[in-house]
Design goal:
Elements (H helix, E strand, L loop, with lengths): L1 E5 L4 E5 L5 H10 L5 E5 L11 H17 L4 E4 L2 H14 L4 E2 L15 E5 L1 H4 L2 H10 L4 E5 L3 H8 L7 H8 L7 E5 L1 H4 L2 H7 L6 E3 L1 H14 L4 E4 L1
Parallel strand pairs: 2-3, 2-4, 4-5, 6-7, 6-8, 8-9
Antiparallel strand pairs: 1-10
Bound molecules: D-glutamic acid (DGL).
D-glutamic acid binds next to helix 3 and helix 8.
Length: 229
Amino acid sequence: MDTAQKDNRPIGIFDSGIGGLSVLESCRAILPYENFIYLADNGFAPYGDKCDDYIRERVFCLSECLIARGVKAIVVACNTATNVGIKMLRERYKIPFVGLEPAIKPARVVDGKTVLLCTPATARQEKFLQLVERYGTEHLIIAPQPNLATIIENCYPNIDLARCEIYKTLNPYADAKAIILGCTHYVLVKDIILDFYNHKNPIFDGNEGASKRLKELLSSYNATNGCIV
Ligand code: DGL
């Protein structure tokens, strides 16, 4: 256990809606002494079918809202918002930002058809395409989903109501060997996806990577709340 200077300012975390709650859970598990403020931008969701300018305006607005509440770091708990806006956020504000990225790199261990589910807005971003170029294998299939995040958002917290739609989404990929969840909403239905593949196929997401990055950043800024487990 490390001891460090105590900085009890909260950490801000936002998503277009409830998807980022899955990231919040990972962050709280790894940083149990930290305080968090979660913003769900439900009134403006979904982001995945919007233009880049719309999404950028939302990420600036939410970041300013969190900064005004005195946060010491912000987790952009949304693959879409990260891919569209994190570069500009880092240019504009001094506090550290952690983003979400589809776990393409860890999924390289799979030898066979790997399907990456993400929003249409993520799928067209240069940042995302560079990641695919760098780490994607010839087995990688990008499968943008125009409605899936909204279906999950509307079912929450009775996530099982989305089961039928999720199975319909996965049917064309029944022969996949692995799935990458490139949207934080999809992580909330991971158990349903596991059921579809009879718990045989690995499922990758970026949540653990993002929470570890947050922990590293807080340590490097000497900004943890007392101690790191
Ligand atoms: N949860 C968001 C993501 O990770 C997007 C959902 C939406 O379309 O608003 O991409």
